[in-house]
Specification:
- The protein is of the alpha+beta class and 124 residues long.
- The chain has one domain.
- It contains two helices and six strands.
- It has a four-stranded mixed beta sheet, covered by helices on one side. It has a two-stranded antiparallel sheet with strand order 2-3.
- Strand 5 and strand 6 form a beta hairpin.
- Helix 1 packs across helix 2.
- It is elongated and about 50 Å long.
- 21% of the residues are buried.
Length: 124
């Protein structure tokens, strides 16, 4: 299963006034969810999973949503995330993160650590 990738682009001639270094910006990958099937929360890994005909993608944390193309975020926002009822709160934090990114609030809060521990319960 692939992880989403983004690309760093150096903005020549644009410098950070505090550090003096060249500003880099993240370039969104092209839309990867053309033939979207579903998306789900994986409690074992604490990751989001999107499945499209092209390939399934794993999102290690909600910060990875910023790297998605806006078109893909709209696709995800229109579809309910699939998960076990026990982990519904964790899964909903992913949908909240999408809403924040789409609203222009690009600072995405971390997802609570809801991965299953060895005994099968949620770790805290």
């Amino acid at each position: 299963m692939k992880y989403t990738q983004s690309y760093l682009n150096k903005n020549r001639g644009v410098y950070d006034r505090h550090t003096g270094k060249t500003v880099k910006s993240v370039v969104s990958p092209p839309s990867v969810l053309k033939n979207f099937k579903f998306w789900a929360y994986d409690p074992k890994m604490g990751e989001g999973i999107t499945d499209a005909e092209e390939a399934p993608y794993r999102l290690a944390n909600t910060h990875d949503l910023i790297n998605y193309h806006e078109e893909d975020l709209h696709v995800l926002s229109k579809n309910q995330i699939q998960t076990n009822e026990k982990y519904e709160i964790c899964a909903k934090s992913w949908t909240g993160a999408i809403a924040n990114v789409l609203a222009g609030k690009l600072v995405v809060n971390s997802v609570p650590d809801c991965r299953e521990d060895v005994a099968g319960g949620a770790s805290r």
